[in-house]
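I would like you to sit down with the record closing this message with an eye to the fold:
=====
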Amino acid sequence: MNGTANHHQEDNRSSEPIGDGDEDEDEDFISLVPIDNGGDDRGDEDEEEETTTGYSNNDTREKTNGKRRNNNNNNKNGLPPWMESYVDHFRVNPMVALHNEIVGFCSLMEPRKEEMKIREDLLQKFTKLAKSTFRNCKVEVFGSQATGLCLPTSDIDIVIQLEEEEETVKKKEPEKKKKKKKNISKQQELEDMENWDKPTGSPLSLLGKALRENWLDDLSYLELIENTRIPLVKFTHAPTKISIDVCFNQKGGPQAAALMNQYMEALSPLRPLTFFLKKFMASRGLNQPYTGGVGSFLLQMMILSFLQHRERDCFNNERPSQYSLGALLVEFFEFYSTDFNFVLTGISVRFDGFFFPKGSTDRKKNFWQTNRPFSIALENPLDPTFDVGSPSFRIDLVKRSFETAFKVLLSHVTQPFIPTKSILASILEPSDEMWERRQQVTPNFAAPPERQLDYYTNNNNTMPPRKRQKRR
């Protein structure tokens, strides 16, 4: 990392996620319990102050059938749903406050036991349908559902492993025999026409037909996508509002999920950072490669690569690898917005992580895109010749989003501080989904207050709107 990353070292040490600062504790341990830095709980005070999030401290609202109505409960002075109390910036290290907010966000957004039970029941129901449609098939789950990194609205990724067909044997037959088999009698043609409704055709069409016949009343959406590198069946289960993507004979998905679980065991910050950054990207519409942005697996690999090099930097400089999630988030945004060269450098997470030149002789064929030199080149750990970042585009917008978030967070965690009740809310505005989950977890928690967007909320530009208007 460059200067700013090193500038936070004193902040990082003071915000180490351990209660009493005992040096005998495991250096690799990162607490996911909010850190108490001795600050007073001022969540119940009536003090009013202007914040960068633009929240009103007095007004509250509750959504009921699309209408607003007043709520008499005080919403902790306008705090976001992942915070239950406010500690003054002058009484607590801001990196510690940011760490605690990330922990609170993960606790709020990770699926609860009853939600996981609903997903598992839906998976069992679909598995029965798949096995009744395809004999001796194997249904496997991969993606965020298999790694435990799924948000409440995340899709379920499923792969159906079918038995190897006899087509490979038929391809080896002599051409003469193939020509003889093309001479089909008229009687055979009539029999084929009579048996049109029997299960023949591609696996996608068979599964689509089975879903229409058995789940018609429970489907709100169904689509068969065939003209892609990996054909998919996409459908949404109406009662649970859960979307499912199904592919066939793709062994890489379950293998990638198993590999990701190993990485999360080795690097504990990987899970909470992935939780927050997935929501951060989704709030800006940058979480889908085919619409412009970074997919879930690519984002996880970027976070993993950053943590690998961060660990190596601490080891080489003989520094303990104790740091807060807040410091890691700030440095992640800094690294991929100002330090990393997307044009010249590729990423690999193999062998504890390394970088490589995209234009080198042995890499250029697979990782260099002449028409898109700014694209992310990231090596698939399961297939080193495949570029995970090749489908992604609008990377310049992703980079600007990271740069804006870095500058906004930096203004709240370095002196002179810009006072705010929630540092995290300055780059991620609470959504209606978050407020609903907060009230489900804590029924007495008040509804969201009326608020106005500040300059930086949902803004992907590096310059505040007022300054951009003056330049025009």
